[in-house]
Amino acid sequence: MASDLSLENVSVAAGRKVLLDAVSMRVAKGQFLALVGPNGAGKTTVLRAALGLTDATGSVILDGSPVRQWKGLERAARAAWLPQHPAVIEPVTALELVCAARLRFHEPRHASESAALAALERAGVAAFAGRAVTTLSGGERQRVAVAALLAQDAPLLLLDEPANHLDPGQQIALYRLLGELWREGRGVLCVTHDVNLLGWLGEPARVRVAGLRDGRVAFESRYDAPELPALLSSLFEIEMRALHVDDRRLLVPAGGAP
Amino acid sequence: MNPRVIVLVVLSAACVAAAPFVGGSLDGAQGDYILQQLRIPRVLMAVLVGGTMGLVGACYQTIFANPLAAPSTVGTTAGATVGAMMAVVLGTPAWLEDFGFPVMALAAFIGALVVSFVISLISTSGRARVNDVLLAGIAMTLAAGAISTGLQYTADERQLQAAVLWSLGHLSQVGYRGVLMLLPFVVLCGAVLLLQARALNSLLGGEDRAHSQGVDVPRLRALVLGVGALAVAGCVAWCGPIAFVGLIVPHFVRLFVGTDRRRLLPLSFIAGAGFLAACDTVARLALPDRELPVGVLTAGLGAPLLVWLIASQRKS
Prior knowledge:
The complex is a heterodimer of chains A (258) and B (316).
Chain A lengths: L4 E10 L2 E11 L4 E5 L6 H8 L6 E6 L2 E2 L5 H5 L2 E4 L11 H7 L8 H14 L15 H15 L3 E5 L7 H16 L3 E5 L15 E7 L2 E7 L5 H9 L3 E6 L2 E6 L5
Parallel strand pairs in A: 3-8, 3-9, 6-7, 7-8
Antiparallel strand pairs in A: 1-2, 1-4, 4-5, 9-10, 11-12
Helix pairs in contact in A: 3-4, 3-5, 4-5
Chain B lengths: L2 H16 L9 H36 L12 H15 L3 H5 L4 H21 L6 H25 L2 H12 L6 H20 L2 H7 L3 H6 L4 H23 L5 H13 L3 H25 L8 H22 L1
Helix pairs in contact in B: 1-13, 2-8, 2-11, 2-12, 2-13, 3-5, 3-6, 3-7, 3-11, 5-6, 5-11, 8-11, 12-13, 12-14
């Protein structure tokens, strides 16, 4: 299953407010596309449109067909989504939460549980399988959410600020894990505020960065491109400078106008 | 099997099995009649009604992501009450009564379905959030309560007595006829609801995640609401509004067996059946010279239990 995602001239409006304006982008198998932009630029709306969750004009094609033509379980076999603030309404255990992601597989309970345990192991949180998710730290909870993505076993991952509210160590660990999942052949569309975290994915030359501003795609560039700091400066309207630490390039806001 | 599951099932089964034999002597032909024609159908009715309320309550609490969601809080029970009050106060055609048609039950059924249909429309509108739907249910409950009160105000003494008796909630005087008429509703609706357990599990992780995992959330919500309303309307039509079973039973079952809907839904049915059978037995024996309506007892027990549950959950 290739599960390529392509958005062509996708526009979304809420009343008179334009959320997305003729956005086009493509994520193919084995590609990593990071979506960056200021608050309110429309990044989450891109993910919602990609999943057919919002009324949009233009075309959203998932694995060769318009996304809204797929039935729920068919779409779940092609794309998995990590929402920004996934709410848990009851003290569900980590194992139960990850088991629920096996919905698309018509399998007995023990099969779901062994797949969920394997996913928790891969995400490094197998020790918390029996703990209520509500009692876990933000980082542990996010790793459980990633385990649910793994259990769903879709070839395309849509991630909305996956490192939000995590401490620096947990952020890096999470992006290393995402890098592993990407290099296994999955396509990834990842919304992030912090472009420096993309450096922990590995293979920076293959990571693409798209800048979104006021609902429009302002640029698309490679993560290691020399012009990326200037593009980000223009996008965030603040001067961004490149610092080199060991062999790693860090982009930091310098505070002045671009 | 989880020992807690076994305890819950055995306890519920014991309540149901013992219920017909608790109370006055069952000796002789009169005793046989009391057992077979009065107590057994009454306990069977408790199983169907209590089980349905428990199951539907557990489903409603999941789709509304709210522990206070239950048939009595989303308008289903109030709609049935309005229907029944209309049948009592406005009167029914004589030929229908001569024919033996259960007019009051049918009217209650229509009332519950009308309210549930409105709530279903709101829930599937696509723009309604979970709390909007719950608030709409509460608004419908208040409106239905006002209409019921207005109908009672216009009723004569005989009508008023019938209306009040029905509204207290009871399992007596239903007999095998009621059991047989309710059984298909409960079996069909129960089967449909139990089949949604995996999708409801997915919903525990939030609407967005459930959508990503393949759940058509508006459709699931409308299905559970509609089918649940059908089952509850059948129960309320025969027995009057029996409060708190659908609200309180799923909470206790969750404390015993956790949140997995594949366990919680069937066990809420079983525990609801046992709980109502036990309550009805106590209601039958509580007063020396008359029976206490079981709806009064469930409400009396349920309200403090709910407060205790909310307080204990806040502490944890």
